[in-house]
Amino acid sequence: MSDPFPDPSDEALGRRLADELPRYAAPARLRVAILEAAAPPRRPRPWFAPALAAAATALALALFFLPLLPRITPADPVQRLVRAVVAEHTRALMWGARRGDIVPTALGWLTQESGIGWNRVFGGDDQLTFVAAEPVYLDLRRGVALHYRDGEGHLVTYVALPAPGFKLPARDRLQVDRFRPALARDNGFASWVWTQGDLTCFLVSDRVSAEELPRFKDYFLRVRAATEPYLAY
What CATH fold (topology level) applies to the domain 77-231? Predict the structure, then answer.
């Protein structure tokens, strides 16, 4: 309880202190600090963190599975077969051949599994090294794939598929020595396409630029001249 009769000397001392002591203004940052300390703490919104995590997970899954989704199948039969062969070439490029069989020891087994026989097979030379041979099943057709690598490490895939009566479009055909294969491009790869009897053959590589075309023509000549498949049954 306050004293109803304060000591006059206390009042005089208070007035003297108020008159004589210097006064200083409080800095602005002190005011801000006081207001922030007095404000109630902000509570995080409970839905924000789970929603952000779910969105991040959905984006990651979309980026992972989008390249695996099947693309629209082309109506053009040549382009449809080229796309299937390029997909097989890409698989071998990423994960390697399913088997490491070598030519010519694998020819009997390849004929049994694919229905394609061989009079001659290109087994590699100083420009293309044979890697592996394996049966394939592309566009509902049993066939065979032979894989090679060139001196710079590029994978070159030869594929033969049964396709009786298959016609190559004249607009895509190029003169390569005495042959006239068609040149097709799909998904960053180039493919030579030609027919031998009832078989359609492909040679796929990532050499797609105009500067690399002469070398890709040379690869075609080496494989085409030394490989003679036929439909065994």
Answer: Phosphorylase Kinase; domain 1 (3.30.200)
